[in-house]
Amino acid sequence: MQESLDDYQKVCETNEIPDDTGHVVSIDDHEIAIFEVDDEFLAITNVCPHQGGPLAEGKVEEKTVFCPWHGYEFDLESGDHIQAFSDDLSCVTYDVVVQDDAVHVKV
Ligand code: FES
Q1: Residue stretches of the chain with pLDDT short of 50
Q2: Which of 16, 84, 92, 106 would bridge with 12, disulfide CB 3.0–4.6 Å?
């Protein structure tokens, strides 16, 4: 049975997401980075909470993204800053559903 997409918006196709980095989409004023990790699709804010670096351009290892500006690491599932200097450095994450090769995100 397919999951209801009532609260989700289609943002892209799965084949638009690169293997080793992210793909940026926008919903209203949310700039969102979509990643594919081991056939799982994960969405996190594209705006690094440190100084605004573009997380979609960051390198990904397992489920961690490294901000391209200063290398801070964020968990793509929880949004937590790995080094945990401060709770203020957590990122917003978003629920993702893929149906028929279309990526849908809930904001
Ligand atoms: S802007 Fe992302 S680590 Fe500094």
Answers
A1: none
A2: 16
